[in-house]
Amino acid sequence: MRAINKNWSIMTGNEAVALATKLAGVKFVSAYPITPQTAIVEKIAEMVANEKMDAKFIEVESEHSAMASVMGSELAGVRSFTASSSHGILYMHEMLNWVAGMRLPILMAVVNRSIGPPWNIWADHSDTMTQRDTGWMQLYGESNQEAMDTIILGYKLAENKDILLPIMVMQDAFTLSHTSEPVEIRDEEKVREFVGEFNLPFKIDINKPMGYGSLMPPDGPFMELKMDMKKSMYSGVNKFIEITKEFNETFDANFPGPVEGFMMDDADYALITLGSISSTAKHVVRNLRNQGKKVGLLRILLYRPFPKDLVINYLRGLKGFGVVDRSSTYGPFGSLYMDVISSIYGKLDIPAANFIAGLGGRDVRVVDFEEMFMRIMEGEDGEIWINAGVK
Amino acid sequence: MVLVPTAYAPSSNNKTSSWRTTRPVIDYSKCTRCMICWKFCPDVAIGVTFGEKLDYPNERFSKLEAPFINYDYCKGCGICASECPFDAIDMVQESEM
Q: Nearest Cβ partner of B3 from A212, A214, A221?
């Protein structure tokens, strides 16, 4: 148990996110409710109505408008926030590109939910995986504590003058969003100091009117703008490490940074995961370690930008590994697997399997992780669907 | 500092009249100043002026506000001509002008 003078509370992932926006000094929120994100919006609306949070909250008629309105407020120089899930994310797809291309450091909490049909409200990462190329950074949390901390870290990272990109902060539907866990509430004054004042260098100025995102011909700096976005995004990996260090010192916390290696030091075999299923995977790693098997887990927290150098360092020396994708993609393999494999191409030659698991909220159980470890230890590769078949 | 897609040049510098192949011409003897063309113009290329600035054969309306077409920005879509309830707007080929 940590020191007892800390401010702990039992809360759901959704409540942790809502509270974090208050701590981070968000001044404008616009959102449209969708299961399982609704509780975030409700909590923020309640705090604003009860004057516990000094912000403007507007209800809109759609997610497309939610993203468009936070784009406007952010351009006016106001720290803004929104939240969504699943089909809501798909509906705001166009505006996601606009926000990133305009370099607006907006944060959006996403409660990961599958994409229909068939209609399904449970956890998988298909909704945000379809948005990985919009220019948004993506952080996949594992716990309710991370749901709170990634918002605070996220604003500091996004609003950095050399980054200025929006960030999606993810948590898994129900497993985190509706499940209560102990969360340490960060000190509001310290958070404000840590995040700092928001000062957008190119905000709307009535005395100096500008065109934002207007027509640009092929020989205009269109390619250069995209190049600059990519440069900023990938400088975000090191910046995130720096900010994590500062965060952990300020709050006496234990935030892992872009990737978390669990029992990876002398591991021969490892799994790579995203999100809340990592907790189950860690449990299995501990069990297998007790049986004398040298296994480990690599959890990717920062998925965009993809921290490829860190991943290569962790994978070097393994005899085999598996990548667990909790989303349906129709490329040759799962999204995370393709990112990992293209990162190590030409540098490491290790057999690697791609496990597709947990779609539409299907449980990824202890036995499933045991099966995955067994199969990579047998040297299997290719795409393997776990706990799926005709039911 | 990052690169941002902002432009200080106002879009009013960007004249779009060369896109046009046909131009609307208002016949002020038929025009009743109903302003429907002004309302419908998707490019805000129809403005409003006062009667004395234009040559109005129709005395009845000459003192009213009147629509005029800004040929610097009109792209010749023809919506005004299509919407005009009094057939007061003709679309004329640019090559004939």
A: A221
Site of tokens 């860690």: A282
Residue A1 has a pLDDT of 44
Do the beta carbons of residue A95 and residue A67 sit within 8 Å?
yes
Contact in structure between A121 and A150 (CB atoms under 8 Å)? no
- CA-nearest residue of chain B to A224? B3
Domain spans in chain A, listed from the N-terminal domain onward: 8-251, 259-385
- State how far the alpha carbon of B97 is from the alpha carbons of A373, B18, B21, B47, B80, in Å: 79, 14, 11, 22, 19
Same fold yes or no, A8-251 and A259-385: yes
pLDDT in tens, A294-311: 999 999 999 999 999 999
Q: What is the DSSP string of A240-280?
A: HHHHHHHHHHHHT-----SEEEES-TT-SEEEEE-TTHHHH
Identify the residue with better confidence: B68 or A29: A29
Who's near A67: CB < 8 A, 6+ residues apart? A82, A92, A95, A96, A98, A99, A108
Distance CA A319, CA A332 (A): 23
- Distance of alpha carbon A296 from alpha carbon A318, whole angstroms: 10
User: Closest approach of chain A CAs to the CA of B97, in angstroms?
Assistant: 30
CATH 3.40.50.920 fits A259-385, yes or no: yes
| A/B interface, count of CB pairs below 8 Å | 47
**What is the tens place of the pLDDT at every residue in A41-63?**
999 999 999 999 999 999 999 99
Backbone dihedral angles phi then psi of residue A120, each to the nearest 5 degrees: -160, 130
The answer to whether A164 and B2 have CB atoms below 8 angstroms apart is yes
Instruction: Tell me, yes or no, if B7 comes closer than 8 A to chain A by beta carbon.
Output: yes
* Other beta carbons less than 10 A from residue B94's beta carbon: 12
- CATH code of the region A8-251: 3.40.50.970
Span A106-116, average pLDDT: 97
**Which structural domains are found in chain B, ordered by start?**
23-96 (3.30.70.20)
3-state secondary structure (DSSP) of residue A138: strand
Given a contact cutoff of 8 angstroms between Cβ atoms, the answer to whether A246 and A194 are in contact is: yes
Tokens 């005899």, located at residue: A319
Is the per-residue pLDDT at B2 higher than 60? yes
CA distance to A341, B26, B29, B61, B86, per residue, from B46 (Å): 58, 11, 18, 18, 17
pLDDT confidence of B60, banded at 50, 70, 90?
Answer: low
